[in-house]
């Protein structure tokens, strides 16, 4: 509910503003320790990324309520946003976007970690689980860049707005595609913020969509084996439908004005 989100936002904002906050039966304040604020910013940013790789990966619509709170906090407390991006880029290099190359002397295990895989006791997580986590983080990022906290000051610019999404998309299409990963990330990104990018960039956006259909999808196909076609097929269908309709649908779960009255 909108009222519940406001409560969450106010509590986080009060904590970061140095006000005493009640939690789990005790009162806490960042002023209780000289590094209290820095610690809270760090842990809060880390928590938001965890929401992306956990909650959003399983409940895709949850990207929007989480993102709108973070967007508002980022506006008032830029340090949280900076640290959030650092955590996000470390956990999901594709959010830069960047495909790390393996350097000489880097172990397989270390390289897997650089690519975003979780490695425990020399066991690398399964591909499905890895893709799900990356998907959740990209969807959260794509939601953040288009949302603003509705009760904030609208005079200033969004702290990390759609221009960053436009840049992400352009840079992504300049990279050589990877099997599995590239198709999934492009589809996630376009499903979540394609509509907002279409409204902002108009004809330039449609030129990009046409480029994806004519040039980039064939390049993804060239590196994709027959067993990895699922996501690529979904991306193909999505792009084709959008180009035919000359419209990108609003994402599922977007927060409507009526949401804030609940």
Summary keywords:
4 strands, mainly alpha, 62% helix, 4% strand, 262 residues, single chain, Serine Threonine Protein Phosphatase 5, Tetratricopeptide repeat, two-stranded antiparallel ribbon, globular
Description of the molecule:
It is a single chain. This protein has 262 residues and is mostly helical. It has a single domain (1-261), classed as Serine Threonine Protein Phosphatase 5, Tetratricopeptide repeat, CATH 1.25.40. It is built from nine helices and four strands, in the order H-E-E-H-H-H-H-E-E-H-H-H-H. The chain has helices at residues 2-16, 36-58, 63-76, 78-91, 108-114, 127-144, 162-173, 181-222, 229-245; strands at residues 21-23, 26-28, 119-120, 123-124. Strands 1-2 form a two-stranded antiparallel ribbon. Strand 1 (21-23) and strand 2 form a beta hairpin. It is globular and about 60 Å long. The mean pLDDT is 91. It holds the Pfam family GLE1. Required for the export of mRNAs containing poly(A) tails from the nucleus into the cytoplasm. May be involved in the terminal step of the mRNA transport through the nuclear pore complex (NPC). One of its GO terms (molecular function) is inositol hexakisphosphate binding. It is found in: Cytoplasm; Nucleus, Nuclear pore complex. Keywords: Coiled coil, Cytoplasm, mRNA transport, Nuclear pore complex, Nucleus, Protein transport, Translocation, Transport.
């Amino acid at each position: 509910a909108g009222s519940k989100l406001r409560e969450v936002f106010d509590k986080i904002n009060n904590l970061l503003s140095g006000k005493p906050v009640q939690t789990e039966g005790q009162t806490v304040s960042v002023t209780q320790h000289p590094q209290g604020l820095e610690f809270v910013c760090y842990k809060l940013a880390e928590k938001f990324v965890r929401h992306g790789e956990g909650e959003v990966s399983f409940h895709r619509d949850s990207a929007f309520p989480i993102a709108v709170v973070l967007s508002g906090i980022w506006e008032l407390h830029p340090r949280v946003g900076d640290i959030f991006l650092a955590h996000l880029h470390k956990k999901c290099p594709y959010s830069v976007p960047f495909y790390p190359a393996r350097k000489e002397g880097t172990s397989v295990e270390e390289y897997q970690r650089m690519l975003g895989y979780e490695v425990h006791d020399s066991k690398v997580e399964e591909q499905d689980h890895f893709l799900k986590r990356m998907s959740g983080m990209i969807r959260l990022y794509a939601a953040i860049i288009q949302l603003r906290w509705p009760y904030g000051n609208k005079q200033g610019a969004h702290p990390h707005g759609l221009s960053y999404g436009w840049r992400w998309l352009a840079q992504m299409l300049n990279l050589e595609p990877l099997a599995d990963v590239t198709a999934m990330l492009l589809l996630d990104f376009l499903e979540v913020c394609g509509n907002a990018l279409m409204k902002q960039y108009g004809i330039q956006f449609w030129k990009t969509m046409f480029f994806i259909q004519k040039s980039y999808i064939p390049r993804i196909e060239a590196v994709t084996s027959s067993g990895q076609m699922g996501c690529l097929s979904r991306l193909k269908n999505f792009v084709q439908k959008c180009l035919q309709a000359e419209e990108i649908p609003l994402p599922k779960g977007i927060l409507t004005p009526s949401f804030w009255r609940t």
